[in-house]
Amino acid sequence: MTKTTFMKMKSFLCNNHLSLELTKRMVKCYVWSVLLYRAEVWTLKVSIMNKMEALEMWVHRRMLKIPGTARKTNEKVLRNVNKDRELLKTVKHQKMSYLGYILKGSRYKIFN
Q1: Does residue 64 surpass a pLDDT of 70?
Q2: Domain locations in the chain?
Q3: Whole-number Cα distances in Å, 11 to 15, 28, 54, 103
Q4: Rg of the Cα trace of the chain?
Q5: Can you give the pLDDT at residue 112?
């Protein structure tokens, strides 16, 4: 579903006339929002985390128009985009925020 969203906007997101910063903000707004919908209730398994990291790198490579056959490491691609891997960190942060929200409820009062 996320790749479909990216491909619908490919002509806009892979445009060389836009700055890289604007493109990254547009990806975060339109593509990541589709992926991260209700992410706080997901069960994070190793296979899902690997797929999310692969998707993040796929999007960065498409933004920079790097073909799949190019022999560039993920670190080089991340340096070109001036980013760290942040998608998985965002999901984990959402999960922790959701847990805090749940534990605030009256049902989970430990010390009262």
Answers
A1: yes
A2: 2-108
A3: 6, 16, 21, 44
A4: 17
A5: 53
